[in-house]
Amino acid sequence: MLLKYYANRLLKLPLDLNDTQVIPARLELTKSTGKKVKILFLVNELSEEIVGEKAQVKGLPDKRLDIGDSLYLDDHPIAEVVSQDKEEFTFNLLVSLDYFRKTLEDRGLTPLPPYIHSSLSEGDVREKYQTIFSETNPLASVAAPTASLHFTERVFCSLEEKGIENTRVTLHVGRGTFSHINEDTKQLHREPVYISRASAEKIADAKRHGRTVISSGTTATRVLESSVRFILDNNQPDDREGQSDLSGFTSIFIKPSYDFKIVDALMTNFHLPNTSLLMLLDAFLQYKKSTKTWRDIYEYAVENKFRFYSFGDAMLVI
């Protein structure tokens, strides 16, 4: 019986992955004055809502814009500036959403983090800054769920042989994920999330049988910990009948003293200081009652020449 108990704990461990897709959301446009401006369009917030017969999108320009500015691509009007909130601008689209999305795909640049200076071609960047299991969606991300960049088909085959299955959840990453925070930060950015009933059932089944739920990355963690009620409502098979998928938004802020309800193990890269990602790691280490702080771990990583940030190494906190 004891052997059977431990076998059940090891079999079918769910590894939860964020299957969002990064799209080339940075586009160079021309103002009516002829000056060029690059805009990072926040496609994770791309609105289907029509305002004054025009769809709207938010974006971050690299040069000054004024309310009323029109922006062109090859002399064709694409968007006009309608409002500004600090460094974030809102644009009315002068083309259809489908045309705009196709324009980004054809002419856009992958929004690599500013600390990455790559000599790779755009085609190579698109391939390397994308998980192999990303799913096309009307919404998308402006940054990759970087912990999941480590997975290849070979790795998945190896995991499957060891009884580790993967489930998919979705969080469309916005710029806020990487924004610096301080002691005055009270709330995080809002990001779209999705979790299917089937994924929730797998995770609930694991929790019910005491199997370890492994989260690949901080974004997958935020989905799971935002969906506690939805997942745990699936805790009994009789409760699943007719239950729909979960689709909405999260602004969950996971920081020290947070009591994790779903995630039992965390795989994550080495993050920038003063970000919510590092604060989430700190919270998880404290939740696991680790004898090591994140500073201890990072000092070890520096001493041993680990690679940091998006294309860097990862750690598994159990």
List the helices and strands and how they pair.
Elements: H1 2-10, E1 13-18, E2 26-31, E3 36-41, E4 50-51, E5 54-61, E6 70-73, E7 76-85, E8 88-93, H2 97-107, H3 122-128, H4 153-161, E9 164-171, E10 191-195, H5 197-208, E11 214-216, H6 218-226, H7 228-232, E12 246-250, E13 265-269, H8 276-287, H9 294-303, E14 314-317
Parallel strand pairs: 1-9, 1-11, 11-13
Antiparallel strand pairs: 2-3, 2-6, 3-5, 4-5, 5-8, 6-7, 7-8, 9-10, 10-12, 13-14
Condensed summary:
By secondary structure, the chain is α+β, with helices and mostly antiparallel strands. The chain has 9 helices and 14 strands. The chain folds into 2 domains: 213 residues, 3-Layer(aba) Sandwich (QueA-like), CATH 3.40.1780.10; 84 residues, Thrombin, subunit H (Beta Barrel).
Can you tell me about this structure?
This protein is an alpha+beta fold and 318 residues long. It has helices at residues 2-10, 97-107, 122-128, 153-161, 197-208, 218-226, 228-232, 276-287, 294-303, and strands at residues 13-18, 26-31, 36-41, 50-51, 54-61, 70-73, 76-85, 88-93, 164-171, 191-195, 214-216, 246-250, 265-269, 314-317. It folds into two domains: 2-21 and 125-317, QueA-like; 26-109, Thrombin, subunit H (Beta Barrel). The protein has a seven-stranded mixed sheet. Strands 2-3-5-8-7-6 form a six-stranded antiparallel β-barrel. The protein is 26% helix and 25% strand. A hairpin with a 2-residue loop joins strand 7 and strand 8 (88-93). The chain is globular and about 60 Å long. The protein is built from nine helices and 14 strands.
